Every structure is written in C-alpha cells, then in structure tokens.
User: Fold these one by one.
Assistant:
Number 1:
Amino acid sequence: MCQALFPLGTVVRGNHVEYRKQFGKRVRTIRKKAKLTLEVAAERANLSGNYWGEVERSQKVPSLDTIIAMAKALGVPAHALLKLDREDDAKNLRKRIDAMLDRCSREQLEVASRILHAVVEP
C-alpha cells in the first residue's frame, strides 16, 4: 500500500487511528505560537525538556495527567491539545492528498482508488 496514505507511526485498528504524530505536532505548534522554548514549557509543566521533546517527536505517549500539565504550561485547555481531526481546511487537505498520490506507483494508486471508492460510495 502507498506508505504515504498511512505514514510510519500511524496504527490502524478497525475504524480507529492513533494520532500520536498529530498530537506531537499540535503540541509543538501551540508551544511555538505561545513563543515558548521547549525548556520553558517543560519547566512550567514540571517535566524534563527531553521528555517534552520526545512527546513532540511522537516518541513518547503522555498520560492524561501529563497532557493536562502540558496544556496548563501552554495556557490552553487540555482539549485544545486533543483536537486532532479536521485541522485542515478542504483546500489544504486536497493538496496533501494530491502530494501523497503523486508519490504512488500505478499499483498503489489502484489500491488507493479502491479504498476511496469504499469510503465515498459504500
């Protein structure tokens, strides 16, 4: 299957997808918007800078208590860190999908087409 459709670190289980990478990216984006260094944000959350960085790089999965501490350190509600879906508008989403499809072989495109057909026209 086209690796771009399911990047490394994405685990598909039934209808559920784990969003570890997306969570880390969201934490980093919010931290940078708050103009906080990784070290300052980690200190505010009473975490090590190494651990915070591992969360941002999707190498560690934080507990609920840690997510709440990170959110407080960033000055946002915890649910803001967990808002993982529908972050892109339709135009950006189409661009990302087009870019992924551009890297696929003919066989991978056929698989992607069958998947889309199953999702769009059940």
Note: Confidence is low (pLDDT under 50) at residues 1-17.
Number 2:
Amino acid sequence: MGRLGRCAAAVGLAGTMAFVALTAATPAVAVTGGPGYRLLGGDGGIFAFGSSRFFGSAAASPTDCPADPPARSMPDGSCWSMAATPDDRGYWIVGAYSGRVFPFGDAVSYGQPADGVAYAGGADTWPDAIGIAPTPDGRGYWVLLVGLSGLGSVQPFGDATSYGDETTVSHGTGHAGLPVALVATPDGTGYWIVDSDGGVFAFGSAAFRGSTGGTRLNAPVVAAAATSDGKGYWLVAADGGVFAFGDAVFGGSMGGVRLAAPVVGIAPDHAGPGYWLAASDGGVFALGGAPFLGSMGGSPLHRPVFAVAAAAPTT
C-alpha cells in the first residue's frame, strides 16, 4: 500500500483496519441483526456477508479505482481501504491513488485528501491514501496517507480531531517499516498507526500495548484491529500470523499453514473475542469463535481483495 504498495504489493501489504473508533459524541445506534463483514476488492468492488448489506461499490466506475494509474504501479487496482458507518447502513471507500473518498448508503463525505495541498502537484508526488477510520457518531473520519518520506500522516475530516502522526514524532535511529494500518480508540480520542515491521505508534489517548517492532518476522505485518474496550489490539502478517497485545485474546492464526493467497486484513467479531482474517483471493478465516459467514475464496475476482471491515456492534 502506498509506497509500500509499489514495492511490496505481491505480499498483499494493503492493510485493513477493523475500525472500531468511537468519539465523545453520542454514538449512532447499530442496526445489525448479528455479525457480518465486507470485503473490498482493488477495483472498489464490495462483497457483503452475514448481517452486512451491499449499498453499492466504486467498481461501477472505471475511473474511481483504476489499475496502474499514471505515475503508479498498482496492477491490482487502487482502492485499498474501507470503513463501515457506526450503524452499518453505509461505508466509505478510499482511493489510494486519487485520495478521493467514496460514500455509500448512509455514509456522508466530510472531505477528502484529494482536495488538499498534498495532491496539488504532479501525480508522482502525491501520497497514497491507505486507511480510513470513522468517528463513533459517523460525522467524521481520519485518513492515513503515506508520502515520499515513507512516514504515515493522518488527515482528520468532519468532527475527527488530529492527535499527531509519524511525521510529528522522533524516530531515533531510523524508521524500519512502512505504514499499513490506522486503528482508532473506542472513545475516538486517539489512534494507532501500525507499520509493516510490526512497529506500533500511539497517539492521543491510545496506549502502547506492545509490538513486533525489532522482532524477526516470517512475513510483514499488513493490518491491525483493536479490541472493543481499546485496551488491546491484534496485528496480522501476510502469512496469517496473528500477534495479540493488551487484552486482545489470541484465537489462532494461519501462520504455518500453506495459503493460496496472502492475508491482507483482520476484523474483530464484536460479539466475542474472535476475529476474521481475509486473504487477497477472497478467502476468509474465522478464528477465536468468530462465525464463518462466507467468502469469495474459489470464486473468480476482477481484482484481488485488499480489505475486510466488520459490521458495527449491535446495541
């Protein structure tokens, strides 16, 4: 993803955040009838399972998520991240190349990186928009960008507040990984940025619970998800390895299992301690007690899957 997508797309480094962000504003009431999740294809295609519904996709327009746009090597498409609205009646899709935000269902656009100064120059200088996390009332969101520096910057829109990013902190002897995930705290007063080496950077009220930074990994980290209380999180690697920190419960992994395609995302089951892993071929692995609700594994896809997002918790 981002500069990362250009150098390591083969291992599916298009991380998906399981966005469980909440803010101090009154949360919207979820209307889901049970667990559900959606998969996002690189062409902007959406595949909905369980209680999650389909409200449209960016694949309907050939210009929204193009493959190999100017000044980019993105052969698998350029839509890499999505997030559901708090009531799960809509979702946002982000164009990694264009910095555009595409709303569907009851999702509302509160702005997009494409309209900012970062996209004012030539396309070869544009950052890549690789992640989105909504505020709990659904009236704003944060977008994670990766620029030429390889550092992650966060842009807030709507009622989202900036708490800093990798460009505002000291990195000591250097920055080892590239950003792959943005995960917000349950009260929306902070967030984590996760890098491909498993490094975790905490901002605002987000607490550092541990990382795999400095640890030799069999495959790069590609995504992350937070627990419902924000006191823990999971990291997942492209080989399906799962790393649990804080109060996150390890419910199993696909590490050591021969996979048909690399894992690209993780989403939590809000009804329990389990989670789902998604692979680029559309395969879904239900672990830790999370129910299997379907997948696109074995089905022909126009473009590989880049992300998985879970339905909002029922209240």
Note: The CA atoms of residues 84 and 91 lie 4 Å apart.
Number 3:
Amino acid sequence: MQTMSVLAKPAHWKVLLAFGIIYFVWGSTFFAIRVGVSEIPPFLFCAMRFLAAGLLVFCWAIAHREKPPIARQWASVFILAFLIFVVDYGLLFWAEQRVPSGIAAVILATIPAFMALSEILILRTQRLTLRLAVGLLAGIAGVVILVSRSLFFGNLAGVPIDRTGAIALIIGAISWSVASALSRKLPQPSSKVMSSGAQMFAGGIMLAAVAAARGEMHGLRSLQISGSAWIALLYLVFAGSIAGFTAYVWLLHHESPTKVGTYAYVNPVVAVLLGYWLGGEPFGARTILGGLFVLVSIFTITTTRAKTPRIAVEDTA
C-alpha cells in the first residue's frame, strides 16, 4: 500500500504548475474582465465567456461518456447558474465599469465571510464563535475602508471607490455564498466536470437573455471590437475557465482542500498588482489597509474548524 501511494504521488512540477494557474491565472482574470468591458457591454461579454467555456466543457464531458443531468438535476443547474453566473459574475463584469479590477477582487475576497454566515444560517454546520465574529468584522471593516467617505478614512491616500459598484460586488459575493450552501443540498450530476459545464452553459444562456433585455446587442459590430478585447475573451475562456477549472479539480484530488484554498489569499494580491502595473489603477494606503483587513478575514474564517469539512471556496473571476 505504501508503494502504491508513492507511485500515485504526482510530479512536483505538475503540482507547482497547477498552483501557479489557480494563483496567477485566476488572479489575472479580473484585469482581463476590465479590458473586455471597456469595449463590450458587461452582460454580453460575460455571456460570451460562459457560453463558450460551458459548451466546450459540457461537450468534453459528453465525449468522455459522463452522464448528463437528468430533469431534476437540470432544475438545480439553472438555480445555481443563476446565483453564480448571472448574479455574481454578471454583477462583477458590470461593476468593473465603475470599480478598479484589483479592488473588485479584494471585495469579492469577502466571499468566505458570507459563506461562513451561510453555514451558520442555512446549513447549520457552524456556530458563531468569537473567532468567526472577528473574521466577519475584519471583512466588513476592509470593505468600509475602501468605500468610506468619512473624515477619518478620507485622509487615507486614494479616493473611495464607487459605492454602487461596491454594493453590486457585495450582492454578488452573497449570491455566490448562498449558491455554495445550496449546492450541498440540491441534486447534481455526480461528475464535477459535467456539473460545472452545464452550469456555465446555463449561466451563459441566462446572461445572454439579460444582455438582450438590456439592449446590449443593439448596434454592436464585431469589427468595431479591438484585438485586445478579443484576446481578453479568449484568455477568460481558455485560461480562466478551462485551464483554471482543470487545475483546481486536479489539485483537489492530489492536495488538501485547505492548501488548495490558499488561492483565496493570492488572487486579490495578483489582481491589485496587475491593475496597478498594467492599468494604472490606484494603489495607495486605502487599498493596502482595506486589502489587509480582507486578507485577515479570509485567514481567520478559512482556518476555523467547522462541524463538517468545509468545501474549498471556488469563486474566481
């Protein structure tokens, strides 16, 4: 048995590559979103990403003889797809028209705080302890620092971010946490690849409907879209969604969920630095202090023991 365990251990370079993908590729997708929504309406751009990625993943699963969702499971697929892709991702793409990509990543990093609340209020797998309360308050404090216009915080370098955009991101984070809780109760396909492909594709369909209802398809011509926006779309589809998801699932089979979940600490840092270096986004005392509070919140909450094993957070851009 010990020999089999040694043989089954993956090569070190494969583990490093997979972690590099979920750390840096996922962290960079926030800036790619900013590039895309500067030219393509947000819900349409989001729909293009997940229709393409979802269709490719779904077809791959079918080709590998994975069982598609049955009627009862399709209902769960659409419920989760609405919460994750229409609300969370849709609002993220929309908010990045108003909020710097790095700050958007920092605010969405509060998802573990809302997941903890979901575990307390919905799943009943966690109790509100002093440690959890500190983590929740730290996350809230981080967001307040980023958006506050009060005299105290106003003295920090950098102007506060757009409140409407910040509220949209918080709603998205709450929606993701609710979906995460519901995913442990709703019937889903046994194959994680099939389930994710179906959810992405269903989310893409609903996002396209939202984009059409908002009139985002009127007057848009593909020839008017620059090469940068098309490259951003391809990057989000193939690197962000397909390569990132593949690396994440592979790591869950070879590393502990706690270790895999460390991407939640790295992604906001990567997003902030890329936004600063490539997009000229603000990187002052306000961003640093708010980000530190959010990172403290993530660490405190994700290292708190639950009654049942906590599923690693999967939210990325």
Note: Confidence is low (pLDDT under 50) at residues 1-7, 308-313.
